[in-house]
Design the sequence.
């Protein structure tokens, strides 16, 4: 064959469409145009795909499949489809693209390719890799699970081992079995008739055994009268009805729930490292006093928690005296729980004030020690905070000369000294709240007042601070907590006048008054029924002083315990938590006891801090400062009901009308 050299390229092929020669030397114009159009369309489609990917994920190179580039020329004669290429200024251009070429395009080139991570500047100026938008969201932290109640330990009905047993094993076992039988009987009868609400009162089999073991072990604490204690308990439950058992179980369940609520309390116990927080309300003293009525403590429904609202009648007092005479002075020790006899006026034959000899006790409270991290399965031990001894190891770590007791029954308190209501006093300041605190000691009549302190609020200036000679003979001054020592009583200067003595310049120069009645009269000279009395656990101070006051602010109720009454937060903890301050501290390793002036002012600090919080809420509601008080958005003001506010209605800023005038005007 010879080389054509393109000499026949312009001459049409004689066979035209029927020509089958791959490289015919003649011209085939129609087929050339078709090949050029197909190649152009394929190039446009590839460019559109690359442009779309570049707009979304950034510019990138076209990938190679199997190390070879895709051929831009499709097979001839394949059917074609129409694709529109949009433009911004012109109409879409319609080009013909062979459908076969699109169908044969590898799937790897058609699906989206994950973009590379974008680098963004972080807040500290360094570049950080940002997660793509399609990344899985962060898993939220799981909530802390609620504490699970520990199941009862499986124990047999066998007396628990003790270092010093109060009786031989056979005797203890027989008494334990008899007590268990009574528990079992009552629990079975309760289970028969229990509804859904009473199901929680029914004990399990192990619960009955554990209850019997606990009761028997508790009786072992009184080794000298162990047999009598456990036998009395057996007879008590033998005579008990199902209704009484149900009531007792309801109280126990309520107490368990309260203890659990207290255990999960988030009250901080660690000492704050920052300096004490300043108490700033943004108000003047007069304006702070105007907000106090919002913090008054209603005591009408608190009689069961120790507050006295009515004066005992002479008949009630006579009944109490008859009961005291019939008991012949037998009481239960408030410390070691032993029974002893007290002799008001001293016993004739030897001059003793109480029987039973010395009192050995633990002054600290028991607590559960945390499990060791080295042995998590070890049994938790209950210890005394005062000496870290295990419960049951010793009768006590402290010894006192006498056993002591306290009285909480109102008519018995009135049998020693009756209550009085705060009288009207025209000489007292009407706009001066007073903080009070009393210290008590043990006498032959129970706990009695031995010191009374009153200070102004909010300045904390001392109004009254005197020692008090109690009615009965002193058994124990309770110096660890009262802060009053025997030398303070013996060296104090007597004060017999009805006028308030000047504040003591030092603890050694304090005055002592002859009786609680005298101390109460001095306090009455400083207050009126409308004077706000501020304190912590005020029912103790009011009952010790024997007076009933209608206007009080008790910080124990102003800052309630999470478990509710009768549980209360301590003054030391509240001051520590909210104010970052420390009171009742041990000075130079010596226990000096509480300072009643410090405790009275500490309650005032808490009230002032709460006034600041109340004012913040009022200000957000639209209240503003005006003159010596605060005014609401509609002109309303805080009315002191104890000052006669219940007879007045606020109708505008500074204008008041009585209810009778309003009724007449209507």
Sequence:
């Amino acid at each position: 064959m010879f080389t054509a050299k393109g000499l026949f390229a312009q001459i049409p092929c004689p066979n035209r469409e029927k020509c089958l020669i791959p490289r015919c030397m003649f011209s085939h114009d129609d087929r050339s145009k078709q090949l050029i159009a197909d190649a152009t369309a394929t190039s446009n489609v590839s460019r559109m795909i690359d442009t779309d990917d570049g707009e979304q994920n950034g510019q990138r190179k076209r990938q190679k499949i199997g190390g070879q580039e895709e051929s831009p020329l499709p097979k001839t004669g394949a059917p074609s489809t129409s694709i529109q290429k949009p433009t911004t200024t012109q109409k879409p251009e319609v080009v013909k693209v062979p459908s076969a070429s699109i169908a044969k395009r590898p799937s790897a080139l058609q699906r989206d390719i994950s973009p590379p991570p974008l680098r963004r500047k972080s807040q500290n100026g360094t570049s950080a890799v940002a997660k793509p938008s399609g990344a899985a969201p962060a898993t939220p932290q799981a909530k802390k699970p609620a504490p699970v109640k520990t199941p009862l330990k499986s124990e047999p009905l066998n007396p628990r081992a003790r270092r010093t047993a109060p009786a031989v094993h056979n005797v203890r076992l027989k008494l334990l079995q008899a007590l268990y039988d009574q528990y079992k009987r009552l629990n079975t009868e309760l289970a028969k008739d229990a509804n859904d609400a009473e199901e929680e009162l029914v004990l399990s089999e192990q619960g009955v055994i554990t209850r019997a073991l606990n009761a028997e072990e508790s009786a072992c604490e009184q080794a000298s009268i162990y047999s009598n204690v456990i036998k009395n308990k057996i007879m008590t439950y033998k005579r008990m009805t199902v209704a009484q058992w149900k009531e007792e179980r309801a109280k126990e369940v309520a107490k368990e729930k309260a203890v659990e609520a207290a255990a999960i309390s988030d009250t901080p116990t660690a000492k704050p490292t920052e300096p004490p927080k300043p108490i700033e309300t943004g108000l003047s003293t007069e304006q702070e006093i105007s907000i106090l009525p919002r913090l008054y403590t209603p005591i009408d429904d608190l009689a069961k928690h120790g507050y006295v609202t009515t004066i005992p009648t002479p008949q009630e007092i006579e009944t109490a005296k008859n009961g005291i005479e019939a008991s012949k002075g037998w009481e239960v020790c408030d410390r070691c729980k032993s029974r002893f006899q007290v002799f008001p006026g001293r016993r004739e034959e030897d001059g003793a004030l109480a029987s039973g000899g010395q009192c050995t006790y633990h002054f600290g409270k028991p607590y559960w020690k945390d499990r060791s991290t080295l042995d998590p399965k070890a049994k938790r031990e209950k210890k005394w905070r005062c000496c870290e001894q295990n419960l049951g190891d010793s009768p006590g770590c402290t010894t006192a000369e006498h056993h002591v007791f306290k009285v909480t029954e109102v008519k018995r308190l009135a049998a020693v000294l009756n209550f009085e209501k705060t009288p009207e006093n025209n000489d007292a300041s009407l706009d001066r709240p007073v903080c009070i605190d009393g210290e008590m000691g043990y006498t032959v009549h129970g706990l009695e007042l031995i010191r009374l302190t009153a200070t102004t609020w909010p300045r904390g200036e001392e109004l009254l601070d005197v020692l008090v000679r109690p009615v009965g003979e002193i058994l124990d001054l309770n110096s660890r907590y009262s802060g009053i020592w025997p030398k303070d009583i013996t060296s104090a200067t007597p004060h017999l006048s009805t006028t308030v003595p000047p504040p003591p310049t030092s603890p050694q120069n304090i005055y002592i008054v002859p009786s609680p009645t005298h101390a109460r009269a001095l306090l009455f000279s400083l207050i009126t029924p409308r004077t706000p009395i501020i304190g912590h656990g005020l029912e103790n101070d009011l009952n010790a002083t024997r007076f009933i006051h209608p206007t009080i602010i008790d910080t124990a109720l102003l800052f309630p315990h999470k478990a509710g009454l009768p549980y209360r937060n301590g003054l030391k903890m509240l001051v520590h938590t909210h104010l970052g301050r420390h009171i009742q501290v041990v000075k130079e390793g010596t226990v000096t006891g509480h300072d009643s002036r410090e405790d009275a002012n500490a309650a005032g600090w808490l009230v002032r801090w709460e006034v600041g919080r109340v004012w913040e809420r009022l200000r957000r509601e639209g209240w503003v400062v005006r003159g010596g008080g605060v005014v609401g958005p509609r002109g309303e003001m805080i009315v002191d009901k104890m000052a006669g506010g219940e007879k007045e209605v606020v109708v505008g800023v500074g204008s008041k009308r009585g209810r009778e005038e309003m009724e007449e005007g209507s």
